[in-house]
Amino acid sequence: MEPTLIVLRGNSGSGKTSIVEAIRQAHGHGVAWIEQDYIRRIIFQELDQPDGANIQAIRQLAQQALDRGYHAVVEGIMPKIRYGDMLLQLRNDHAGPSYFYYLDIPLEETVRRHATRPKATAFTAEEMATWYHGTDLLGEPRETVIDQTSSLEMTVKRILTETGLGPAAQFQVGDHDGLA
C-alpha cells in the first residue's frame, strides 16, 4: 500500500489525539504521528504565530515520513489562516492518497471532553474559549467534516475504512496491538 497522508484538524478537546492513538493501535506499525502541539510547544517553544518555525517543520516531517514509506497523520488545531497554505502544499507535493478531516465540535462539548482528560488541570475552560475557532474549514483541500454525533469508535472506523488503513471491521476502542 502506498503511503497515505491523513490530516486531522479540530479545536482543543475535539478528540484528535484519541483518534490518532486509535488509528495507530488498529493499523500497527508504520503510521507516523506529526503532532502540531508537540512540535510548536515542546520542540520550538513558540506561540501560535504567523510564519512560526513549526509550520514548515510539520510539512517537512510529514513529507519525510511519506517519502520513507510511512503513512503520516498530521494532527492539530492548525487554523486555516496560518496553516492552510502549508497543508495545501503538503497535499500537492504528495503523489499518494490524501485525506483531510475536520472535527467540528461545539465549544461546550470540547470543554466537557477536556474535563475527562488526564491533563484537565493544565488549562481552563476560559483559556479553551480564547483558542476556539468555530468551524474553520480549509476550503481547499476539501475536508470531511465529522461532528459531535460521531463517537470515537465510529470516527476511527470511518477513517480506517476511507483511507484503507483498516482493519476497521475488527476495530474496537480499547483493543491492544501488543505494544508495551
UniProtKB/TrEMBL annotation:
Pfam families: AAA_33. Gene3D superfamilies: P-loop containing nucleotide triphosphate hydrolases. InterPro entries: P-loop_NTPase. This is AAA domain-containing protein. It comes from Kribbella steppae.
